[in-house]
Design goal:
The protein is mostly helical. It has helices at 2-21, 25-40, 42-47, 51-79, 91-110, 116-119, 123-140, 144-164, 171-199.
């Protein structure tokens, strides 16, 4: 199971790089969906097929792999956009920053006082690298939908960290994290519709034009 977990986490890192380097919204949504599906398997591979692990994994898969992607695809159909064409930082520089941050995450994880069973795993460096990937998308992209993807990736990193504590963390807390994510997606959908109605664009920088 240790090798399977590491393979899943390496695939998560590859998904990070794809989202940083692609301008196609549809492809990015599919890759973030894949990332969510991959991490939804982790509770079972780490803690075994207990009722708690299966419930947590199934809930994550239903939200991250099915329901939220459906909402995002519906959003891009309604607003008729396909690409992120004007990022604040270009795709090549963003990829380079992502590569540097991923390397830094692996180096930093070596110095953390981890228990023996976690020292040789990729959980901590993958979670840190994924956190920074989400932050990069949130801070360097203009389209609200792309920023939603950044938020999703950011939450995926929190989920990866939470898997290590799943036995100690009450189910209500884990469910609360997923519900917070769901509420955030609904709120962002309202914002997207409002921006499109008022400005005929999804560039979040146009929000600065709003006056009281």
């Amino acid at each position: 199971m240790h090798d399977l977990n590491n393979l899943l986490l390496l695939a998560v890192i590859l998904c990070n790089f794809f989202t940083l380097g692609s301008s196609r919204l549809g492809a990015c949504i599919r890759v973030v969906t894949l990332q969510g599906a991959l991490i939804s398997v982790l509770p079972v591979t780490v803690h075994g097929a207990s009722g708690h692990s299966l419930l947590l994994g199934a809930g994550a898969l239903a939200l991250k792999g099915i329901f939220i992607p459906w909402l995002l695809f519906r959003a891009i159909r309604e607003v008729r956009i396909r690409r992120e064409v004007e990022p604040l930082i270009g795709y090549i520089p963003t990829l380079l920053i992502g590569a540097l941050s991923t390397s830094a995450a692996f180096i930093f994880a070596e110095y953390l006082p981890l228990v023996a069973e976690h020292r040789d795993s990729l959980f901590i460096p993958t979670a840190l690298a994924t956190l920074f990937t989400g932050f990069l998308l949130l801070s360097t992209r203009r389209k609200a939908i792309t920023q939603v993807l950044g938020y999703l990736i950011f939450e995926n990193a929190i989920f990866i960290l939470g898997v290590l504590l799943a036995e100690a963390m009450p189910l209500m807390v884990e469910t609360g994290v997923l519900l917070d994510l769901l509420v955030a997606i609904f709120v962002m959908g309202i914002v997207i519709n409002q921006i499109n109605r008022e400005f005929s664009t999804l560039n979040t920088e146009r929000l600065s034009a709003l006056k009281e």
